Amino acid sequence: RKEVEQDPGPFNVPEGATVAFNCTYSNSASQSFFWYRQDCRKEPKLLMSVYSSGNEDGRFTAQLNRASQYISLLIRDSKLSDSATYLCVVNNAGGTSYGKLTFGQGTILTVHP
Amino acid sequence: DGGITQSPKYLFRKEGQNVTLSCEQNLNHDAMYWYRQDPGQGLRLIYYSQIVNDFQKGDIAEGYSVSREKKESFPLTVTSAQKNPTAFYLCASSIGLDARPGYTFGSGTRLTVV
To answer: Mean pLDDT over all residues of chain B?
Structure first.
């Protein structure tokens, strides 16, 4: 089983749609969780951290379910500029993995007019 | 402005050559990391360093070497032993040893073997 698994998509949605991405992780000792956004041929950029209580940043909502080892990202009212690859990222803290982030392969989102 | 600078942006290597990718940060971050990304794939960890003069192998360290002589600098050498070096290389740093609140990335170096 991969340490971090995402549905690679691609997701093709119209402007204004709501879209959700899911991610599972294998290491129950993981302590920090993030969603990154990566535009084509660019570096990943932090979109938001994910907290146990769930958190929202404008049109973006992140949820964490530790019992199921599951993370989600919800994007409401999609914009054309949301088109990118979304990376689920987990800190595999503990043992020799302290501080390492493990990245999922990414979910491709395309928002069309 | 603080950030991470990677150079060069594009690099072409002949078969059998060693090349060194530069990574410099002025964020005063303790930890630095090198990742490799292949088309359609996620990032894979090559090496990381949590403190000056110390570094650890990541998941795909074979054919690569690093040094951390200064806090600001973490260069990566791609040796001739790396059989498939063509990829997008990303350097990152984090403020704390537990990688909170995530990494800051450089803009990357695209390495192509010709």
So the answer is: 91
